[in-house]
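thought: fold this chain, then report.
action: predict
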Amino acid sequence: MPSTILIVDDEKNIRRTVRMVLEGEGFEVEEAGSGEEALARLPEVAPDVVLLDVQLPGVSGLDVLDALGRPGAPEPVPSVIMISGHATLADAVRATRAGAYDFLEKPLDRDRLMVTLRNAVERRAMAK
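observation:
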């Protein structure tokens, strides 16, 4: 059964591009355009990995990451890979401390994304 990836980014073109790459690699892909939508969809989608943009309108990616660490979050918690084109070192440190698996900068490098994603999926499989 293919792994499910939830892409959370407010930029539709980024979601579409990453979706095409991931589906081409055999992943099932779901999308959310905001932090609120991601939190609402998490229980139904039950993703193995969440690709989560740091800067989202409304609920930020870091707030979504924090919510995944609270009681009532889906179990096991999906691996989270933070993505950002404008993040600071402080954002990366905060995300890592909050449990992010990795932190990738936009524009995303396809090879690095795939290696990171496969490692995150493997980690999630071991957690199950």
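thought: worth noting. The chain has a mean pLDDT of 92.
final: tokens above.
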